[in-house]
Amino acid sequence: MSSEPLLEVENLTIEYDTRQGPLTAVSNADFTVEDGEYFGLVGESGCGKSTLAKSIIGGLDDNGRIASGKLKYRGEELQDLGDAELNEKVRWKEIAYIPQASMNSLDPMQRLSEQALEIANVHTDLSEEEALAQFEEMFEVVGLPENRIRDYPHQFSGGMQQRAIIALALFLQPSIVIADEPTTALDVIMQDQIFKYLDEIRDSTETSMILITHDISLVFESCDELAVMHGGQIAETGPITDVYDDPKHPYSYLLQRAFPDIRFPDRELETIEGTPPQQFGDVDYCTFANRCPWAEEGCREAAPPLEASDTSADGHRAACFRTNEIFEQEDPAESLAAIRGDQS
Ligand SMILES: Nc1ncnc2c1ncn2[C@@H]1O[C@H](COP(=O)(O)OP(=O)(O)OP(=O)(O)O)[C@@H](O)[C@H]1O
């Protein structure tokens, strides 16, 4: 096995051409996903999560492009590869992408087995028999009866369809599955079940997962590492336990307090005022500054580097000029209450 990290996102900037000029959807994103790791990419709607995910498999919309930076899969640079090369080298076999609203991506006219064979034909030399045997195996991993691979999508419930899609993504045994909001269309019970199966997949395969969601508590429950995105920038990244116990960026601190936490059942949930902004042109400022209770003028004058703070653990980095003051010298809850008190 190669000693290179599985996936490296290096200072990646992605732009869309729009009528108002180039929109910077992802700005200098930087993180690494290792073999077998479950990595959460989290942030509110519009933060750039899907754009980043799509760029990894070369699936950006026609008006989107990687403006700078690198994407490396086991050390090999992907950002300049064309469609044919990406198809041959990485898609499905190495990196599988489950898009948002993926239930609509199943072809209603085709049996699941036929959809699996189509993927296998394009991306592998497997015989029909081998491909179907592999698909049956994955049906079992996701908790579906293997004798139902020849069913049509409409013969499955919504949750079963979602599992069938995960089985399709897994069946060529990729090294990474990127799952973009895999459970948003499902009810809470189904969501729980899907996450239970994702856990089982972790135990029975070596697949890494990039789980994209707006729900930071889901990521805390199911991932090893995470990156919190805001306005196209990575606000904070690191091991789950460190970010959970010791957030170093105001956005992840507030986002964490916007979701229920079993440690603090009586705590009031935070609302984060405003919405993530759209950025045009160079993003040489902190995109959270206009929503951040702690922001100062300097936060609007330069983009803070994503770096370790004075006391952060290995691999734990945040992009905030004020992190040491807010999280080391003060108690963030007290200083937040004081700021809010002053403002009211
Ligand atoms: N094809 C496009 N053309 C122009 N702008 C786009 C395009 N696709 C996305 N954007 C913009 O890029 C930014 C990031 O969008 P993206 O879909 O990546 O965010 P997201 O965090 O995945 O949100 P969601 O969870 O709602 O999908 C947003 O401002 C969005 O409006």
UniProtKB/TrEMBL annotation:
Coiled coil: none annotated. Residues 7-256 form the ABC transporter domain. It is found in: Cell membrane. One of its GO terms (cellular component) is plasma membrane. InterPro entries: AAA+_ATPase, ABC_Ni/Peptide_Import, ABC_transporter-like_ATP-bd, ABC_transporter-like_CS, Oligopep_ABC_C, P-loop_NTPase. It is a peripheral membrane protein. Its main location: membrane. It comes from the Archaea. SUPFAM superfamilies: P-loop containing nucleoside triphosphate hydrolases. Keywords: ATP-binding, Cell membrane, Membrane, Nucleotide-binding, Transport. One of its GO terms (biological process) is peptide transport. One of its GO terms (molecular function) is ATP hydrolysis activity. NCBIfam families: oligo_HPY. This is Peptide/nickel transport system ATP-binding protein.
